[in-house]
Design brief:
This protein is 13% helix and 25% strand. It contains one helix and seven strands, in the order H-E-E-E-E-E-E-E. The strands form two sheets. A four-stranded antiparallel beta sheet has the order 4-3-6-7, with no helix packed on it. It has a three-stranded antiparallel beta sheet with strand order 1-2-5, with no helix packed on it. By secondary structure, the protein is of the alpha+beta class. It folds into two domains: 40 residues, no CATH class; 78 residues, Immunoglobulins (Immunoglobulin-like).
């Protein structure tokens, strides 16, 4: 939408000015409701605060901690690989969930996680510091629920138009 904060709207009739302002408000409201930026780009979410992985009996219990603001549409993903350089990462999309139980074999595997909004790029990765094995006959403990990242805050566009 045009930014009329520096003038320019005066060339329109009062009725046209009201229409343009209402149209701008509608576009901005739509952006807030869909986590999109009518003007500018949506920044990626903050990196996850922590990533915990425990293994046993061929299963891995994964727990993501994310203490950042949760805006609508925040989706979490993990990747695992046999190499610390993640030369062949296997992605697992968790959606809004921050915990998972995966049966992917005994490993050992390296893990990393990130988050992304539907309209942004991904956050930087949070790496689990060491490889994790799922050897043995005992299942790993169920991860403590971190809730879901649906988010209850609409996104505020990074460069909202200013209107008088």
């Amino acid at each position: 939408m045009p930014d009329f904060s520096h003038g320019g709207i005066e060339v329109f009739t009062p009725e046209q000015q009201r229409y343009l302002r209402r149209l701008g408000d509608a576009v901005n409201n739509l952006g807030n409701q869909t986590n999109a930026a009518p003007v500018g780009k949506i920044p990626p979410p903050q990196p996850h605060t922590d990533l915990q992985v425990k293994g046993g009996n061929g299963k891995f219990a994964i727990q993501i901690t994310d203490n950042s603001n949760q805006y609508r549409g925040n989706a979490h993903s993990i990747e695992y690989d046999t190499s610390p350089s993640f030369s062949n990462p296997q992605p697992v999309h968790l959606g809004p969930n921050k915990t998972a139980m995966l049966a992917i074999g005994q490993g050992p595997f390296y893990f990393r996680s990130n988050a992304q909004y539907p309209t942004s790029g991904p956050s930087t990765y949070k790496y689990h510091p060491t490889p994790v094995s799922a050897a043995g006959t005992d299942d790993p403990p169920m991860p403590v629920s971190q809730g879901v990242g649906f988010g209850n805050q609409p996104f505020t566009t990074p460069n909202p138009p200013k209107r008088s």
